[in-house]
Design brief:
- The chain contains 22 helices and eight strands.
- By secondary structure, it is α/β, with parallel strands linked by helices.
- Helix 15 packs across helix 18 and helix 16 packs antiparallel against helix 17.
- Strand 4, helix 6 and strand 5 form a beta-alpha-beta unit.
Length: about 475
């Protein structure tokens, strides 16, 4: 007897969609590491009080780069000093090409080992990830001061670091305290706000992927994490044009949404609540050292284009007839593990991350017998599953309009990715993470080629023009 298509946690549509919006302080209660959160206008005025409450009797050391030190860091330094917090000389990164690469973690960790001060990270994604990992390696908590609504990593468990030639999420606790001064964040460069909006929009397709993984017995939905991310997601995404214009209320809502995503990751000790196939595209391009106009596009811009691509891909799959699947024929063609490993090794032979691709691909490999059972489950439950996916997803045209309204790229060429490369990325991205996503569904059901053919054919959403 086959198990039910949907686990008891999500068998009722209400449990997935009719969920209350959690206030940040409610979500904070679920966080495993973060104990204090301030999101408000003029929040810098509270930095010393929060520091003394969370780190009583400790010294502070500002961690910033030259830009964030000049724009915000000095204000934070002065507010701490005025509030009676003892400080040591700031640690300031001077490399103009600074990014979240492990050598920069090592630089900060070496400095932290010379004292016992609490790092106060002033910046956005790169500074936060470097401080997060370096603090962990030196056995201390840290305080994060966000300077832009540019990504969801402020409150996340783990740091996204390039290590051993591959973009990886390295285990490390989230900050003990996080402060986001909306008066500072709303004045961040608009492209940073657009990047954060695109990263938050990705939670829509990430949620759809989790619905799939739950339905097909791969990874059950954690209802607490789901509620934290998805409960207020539509509200946080409601005003893209206003966020682009620096409207304080829209920026506040966006910032809250991004912080909640991190709390869900803390709760689950995984990025699953906030990351799906769209993030695999971004990670792939990071691992390929992709640049455009001499610099790497922002994480959010890569994820935004990928979210649009994955949304279009979903719309193709939702047109498929699972009832017509010839399961015996699909399983007869299914390659054995040795063949999959050899194909993966050949596909990534010229890359620096061949071993990663092989390891991640083989970690999620299933044999023909297991595939047969999963496809039978899919065939039986596809209509109900499609209804849930349609309710979760935002239509392609609307996703595109929202990204345009906030000022984020909507064409792969805008981040230096050709359409042929985007098409190839659907295949390669599947190999670099063991997480079950829509890419796995399409591969296992034999729908991948047909869906990509429709997307990139003349008249398709991503038509390849000769």
């Amino acid at each position: 007897m086959n198990p039910p298509l949907l686990s008891p946690q999500v068998s009722d549509a209400r449990s997935l969609f009719d969920i209350p919006r959690l206030a940040p302080q409610e979500a904070l209660a679920a966080a495993r590491e973060t104990k204090a959160l301030v999101i408000e206008r003029g929040g810098i005025g509270r930095v010393a009080g929060v520091f003394k409450q969370q780190f009583p009797g400790r010294q502070a050391v500002i961690v910033a780069d030259r830009h964030t030190m000049a724009v915000v860091g000095q204000s934070v330094h002065d507010a701490l000093a005025d509030g009676g917090v003892p400080l040591i000389e700031p640690f300031i990164y001077t490399d103009p090409a600074l990014y979240a690469e492990y050598k920069y973690v090592e630089q900060l960790a070496a400095s932290l080992k010379t004292h016992e001060a609490i790092p106060v990270a002033v910046g956005s994604g790169t500074i936060n990830d470097l401080a997060k990992r370096a603090s962990h390696e030196t056995g201390r908590p840290y305080f994060c001061i966000g300077t832009a609504a540019s990504m969801d990593g402020y409150t996340a468990f783990g740091a996204s670091i390039t290590y051993q030639n591959a973009k990886q999420t390295l285990a490390c606790p989230a900050p003990r305290a996080v402060l986001a001064d909306i008066d500072i964040i709303k004045n961040a460069p608009p492209e940073m706000t657009a990047s954060g909006y695109a990263d938050l929009l990705a939670k829509v397709t990430a949620g759809a992927d989790w619905i799939l993984a739950d339905a097909l017995g791969e990874e059950p939905i954690d209802t607490k994490a789901w509620t934290i991310v998805q409960g207020g997601l539509r509200d946080a995404l409601a005003r893209p044009a206003a966020a682009r214009a620096g409207d304080a209320a829209a920026i506040h809502a966006l910032t809250e949404g991004l912080m909640l995503g991190g709390f869900a990751m803390q709760w689950s000790q995984s990025s699953r609540p906030a990351s799906g196939a769209e993030h695999q595209f971004s990670h792939l391009w990071d691992m390929e050292h992709h640049t455009h106009n001499g610099a790497a596009p922002s994480h959010g811009f890569k994820v935004g284009v990928a979210t649009l691509a994955v949304t279009a891909f979903y719309e193709q799959l939702l047109r498929m007839d699972a009832g017509a699947l010839n399961i015996d024929a699909i399983c007869a063609r299914w390659p054995d593990a040795r063949t999959v490993e050899a194909r993966t090794a050949a596909m990534f032979a010229s890359t620096e991350f061949q071993e990663t691709a092989i390891r991640e691909t083989m970690a999620k490999y299933i044999d023909a017998a297991a595939l047969h059972g999963q496809l039978a489950l899919l065939k039986t439950g596809w209509p109900a599953l499609c209804a849930k996916l349609r309710r979760q997803l935002i239509p392609y045209a609307e996703v595109k309009q929202r990204l345009q309204a906030v000022g984020a790229p909507v064409e792969p060429e805008q981040i230096g990715i050709t359409r042929r490369r985007l098409r190839d990325s659907f295949i390669k991205a599947w190999h670099i993470r063991r997480r079950f996503t829509v890419l796995d569904l399409a591969t296992r059901a034999g729908w991948l080629d047909a869906a990509l053919g429709a997307l990139f054919a003349p008249g398709g959403a991503w038509e390849i023009k000769s």
